[in-house]
Amino acid sequence: MRPILSSEKISLSILLLIIGGCIYLLMRPPLLLIHKVAWDLGFGIIVQHGRMFVAGWAVPNWFLYSLPGALWATAYILIIDAILSENSVQSRLLIAAFIPALGVGSELMQWAGLLPGTFDAIDMVFYAFPFLIYVIIEMMKSHENVNVNATLFTLSFFTLYYGIQ
User: Fold this and answer.
1) What pTM was estimated for this model as a whole?
2) What is the CA angle 72-130-2, rounded to 5?
3) 144 pLDDT exceeds 60?
């Protein structure tokens, strides 16, 4: 299997950012800052038509509230991997962890009452999952099978634990 080119990673990142933005614009309540930005940029009518098109769609809450964060975290990781492709794996992993860690940290701060918002364990899983997949891929590329198995076990446990609750 051929490696993904940096230009392909950046293109995929842009697509993921657009998909996450479309979920916000078309399916979330129109009270968010992104709606004002869309109107200010002259896309308000397009957004209105898009909202009418998807108005009858029944999608699960995780799709509306958790998936955009996972898409944006994945886009960030891909961009970091593309930009820092010549750097060490450790430095790429450290920098790629920033946005997923920020997302998980913000959820934990909401849980502790230190940040306004509603704590959601599913959001934490969706923020962390892209980074965990990235770590697994990097380990597989480095042929560190023992660490891959340990990571897969940890990921499975984490997913099952929060999926059961």
Assistant:
1) 0.78
2) 105
3) no
